[in-house]
Design a protein that fits this description.
The chain is α/β, with parallel strands linked by helices. Helix content is 32%, strand content 11%. It has one domain (56-219, 227-354). The strands form three sheets. It has a six-stranded parallel β-sheet. It binds 2-acetamido-2-deoxy-beta-D-glucopyranose (NAG) (3 copies).
């Protein structure tokens, strides 16, 4: 008991260990703790990841000269719609490909997000419209199983490129909010701004009423164990957010109409919320066809393009590819008109995306 066991280690093994340890210490000193010019592989990798300084300036320079076509609707359409319609074709991926004799398109095969548009908006890159895929490339290309998938807009958010988070009033307007767990939750989680106000319009009070408090870190915390990555419940609404949310069970409209519970949204934004271009204003609009007259008004009103920093709009149109979603009721608007509306919005300075 207690006597050392009698096996011996060959001294060469000990010498080897000491040599290896010494080498490690010397290399570590050279690499991390000295100013000696050690071949810094990591440094050159990380600097090669950065854009060259000229490229960075381009990304942030809002006075950049754009091609002349960007002063026109054609530039923002990114497709010669006239030529397309004259050839009596419908906007389908197949027709687009045969008309322009495109080779197989790597963007279509791999990329969930689309290409950049030819023209910037507010001086910043934005995604190219994809009308042939009903503006829903992730879903249409079977990258996503959900028609409501929004992944493709994530790389193009304006607030990822300009600071919309340091303005003191930061407002999210959800026009046609549906249930709380749809777009409001998405914007709260995914949009890189801490909104100080949320104004949500949904005429159906059964769909959207002010939610209950449902989250605090203590109640939703699972102690450290092998399942600690699992939370106990789906996170609900924290108390701080409830005080910021205002719910309106009213129609979003172009004109006030008390009997029909309709609100003139332009007046509401300007005269009730008193929003100005000093504020951060992000608007999501999904109002079942009422977007047409409202957006028409906004394009004739330069104040609105200045007040609204970023606009997400579901433009409703009649096209047979959308009839499974009961969109026939939006006739006579067509997908070509929807594309034109979106391009006109950009031409008028709205950083506009098709939603979702
Ligand atoms: C932005 O681009 C314009 C035109 O190319 C140039 O004159 C100006 O110096 C640039 N501004 C910055 C901040 O890089
Ligand atoms: C678009 O097509 C029409 C008709 O083919 C043509 O007249 C027009 O010049 C084209 N526009 C552009 C910008 O190429
Ligand atoms: C809605 O409000 C705006 C801003 O106050 C106003 O200019 C417009 O005329 C109103 N719309 C209608 C249909 O009255």
């Amino acid at each position: 008991m207690g006597s050392p066991s009698g096996y011996a280690v060959h001294p060469w093994i000990l010498y080897l260990c000491i040599t290896l340890l010494t080498c490690y210490v010397v290399l570590d000193l050279l690499a991390n703790h000295s100013d000696l010019a050690f071949p810094s592989l990591l440094a050159s990798c990380s600097s090669s990841l950065l854009l060259p300084s000229a490229g960075r300036a381009v990304l942030h320079n809002t006075s950049i000269k754009e091609p002349d076509i960007c002063q026109t609707l054609q530039g923002h359409l990114d497709i010669n719609l006239t030529a397309f319609q004259e050839s009596h074709l419908d906007l389908t991926p197949k027709n687009l490909a045969t008309l322009t004799k495109l080779p197989e398109d790597p963007w279509k095969q791999m990329k969930w997000v689309g290409q950049a548009a030819t023209c910037r908006v507010k001086g910043h890159y934005i995604e190219r419209f994809d009308p042939a895929l009903n503006f829903r490339r992730g879903f249409a290309l079977r990258f996503a199983s959900d028609v409501e998938d929004k992944t493709h807009v994530l790389p193009w958010l304006l607030a990822s490129r300009v600071d919309l988070n340091s303005r003191s009033r930061r407002v999210y307007l959800d026009l046609g909010a549906n249930a709380f767990s749809t777009s409001i939750t998405w914007f709260m989680r995914m949009y890189p701004v801490d909104f100080t106000e949320v104004h949500a319009f949904e005429v159906d009070a059964h769909l959207l009423s002010k939610p209950q408090r449902g989250f605090d870190q203590d109640s939703n915390y699972a102690g450290a164990n092998q399942w600690s990555l699992m939370v106990r419940q789906v996170p609900g609404i924290p108390a701080w957010m409830l005080t910021r949310i205002h719910v309106y069970n009213q129609f979003v409209s172009d004109a006030d109409d008390v009997e029909k519970k309709a609100v003139n949204i332009t007046r509401f934004i300007k005269e009730e919320l008193c929003l100005t271009e000093q504020d951060t204003v992000v608007v999501k609009m999904d109002i079942e066809g009422s977007e047409w007259p409202i957006l028409d008004r906004w394009m004739r009103d330069a104040d609105m393009a200045a007040i609204v920093d970023e606009l997400f709009v579901e433009v409703h149109y009649d096209h047979r590819s959308m009839r499974g979603y009961h969109w026939a009721r939006f006739a006579p608007t067509s997908r070509e008109k929807a594309l034109t509306l979106l391009a006109q919005l950009r031409l008028h300075g709205f950083f506009a995306h098709a939603w979702p």
